[in-house]
Specification:
By secondary structure, the chain is α/β, with parallel strands linked by helices. About 40% of the residues lie in helices and about 25% in strands. The protein contains six helices and eight strands, in the order βββαβαββαβαβαα. It has a six-stranded mixed beta sheet with strand order 4-1-5-8-6-7, sandwiched between helices. A two-stranded antiparallel sheet has the order 2-3. Strand 2 and strand 3 form a beta hairpin. Helix 1 packs across helix 6 and helix 3 crosses helix 6. The protein is globular, with a radius of gyration of 15 Å. The mean pLDDT is about 95.
Length: about 190
C-alpha cells in the first residue's frame, strides 16, 4: 500500500493568500515549482502516492485566506493522506537570515520527527543551514489536518543567496525533501 503524501504549495498566485515577494521573485512561484518536482519524485517511486494542492501555476484556491487554507486542508483530509507537507519561503527584515525551518503543531509528535528528517534532507541537498523544528499550534494547516503535518520554510526569499538557489535550482529543494522522506521511512 503506497504512502499518501499531500504536498501543499503555499500561497496563491495572487491575493487572497498571495505569499512574500523579494527581488522580483514571488514565494508562490517557488513553492509551486518545488512542490510539483517533489510530487514527480514521489510518484515515480511505487512506495508513494503524491498529490499537490495546486496543479497548475495560476491555480487560485479559495476566495479568502481562510477558504484558501481550508481548500488545502480539506483536499488532504478527504483524500485520506498519510502525511501533509506545506512548502513555504521564509521572509525577514534581517537580510542575512538564511536556511530552512520546519513548523509543527506539537514538538512531541510524529510530525516533528518527520520535520527533522526533511530539514536534514534539505541541508544535505542545498547546503543551506538547518534552523530546526519549531512549534506553532496557531497555523491553520497544522491545526486542521487529520494526519501528521509539517510546514516547511525551505529558505529565505529575502536572502539574496537563498532566493537565487530557490529560483535557479528548485530541483535541489525537491530532492532534499524527497531524500528526507526516504530516510524517515527507512527507504534510503
Amino acid at each position: 500500500m503506497a504512502i499518501k503524501i499531500f504536498i501543499d504549495q503555499g500561497h496563491n498566485p495572487q491575493n487572497p493568500n498571495a505569499g512574500a515577494e523579494a527581488g522580483g521573485v514571488r514565494e508562490q512561484d517557488i513553492t509551486y515549482e518545488v512542490g510539483i518536482r517533489l510530487a514527480d519524485l514521489l510518484n515515480a517511486n511505487p512506495n508513494f502516492e503524491a498529490r499537490t494542492s495546486r496543479t497548475y501555476p495560476e491555480e487560485q484556491l479559495g476566495t479568502s485566506t481562510t477558504t484558501s487554507l481550508a481548500a488545502r486542508v480539506n483536499a488532504a483530509n478527504s483524500w485520506g493522506a498519510n502525511y501533509f507537507i506545506s512548502i513555504h519561503c521564509n521572509a525577514s527584515d534581517i537580510l542575512e537570515a538564511s536556511g530552512s525551518e520546519a513548523y509543527v503543531y506539537r514538538l512531541d509528535s510524529e510530525a516533528a520527527v518527520l520535520g527533522e528528517y526533511l530539514l536534514i534532507g534539505l541541508e544535505n541537498a542545498t547546503g543551506l543551514p538547518n534552523r530546526g523544528v519549531m512549534q506553532n499550534s496557531g497555523l491553520y494547516v497544522l491545526r486542521r489536518t487529520y494526519m501528521p503535518a509539517v510546514l516547511m520554510e525551505i529558505g529565505f526569499i529575502t536572502n539574496e543567496y537563498d532566493r537565487y538557489l530557490m529560483t535557479t535550482d528548485p530541483e535541489s529543494f525537491a530532492r532534499g525533501l524527497y531524500n528526507g522522506l526516504l530516510s524517515y521511512f527507512g527507504l534510503a
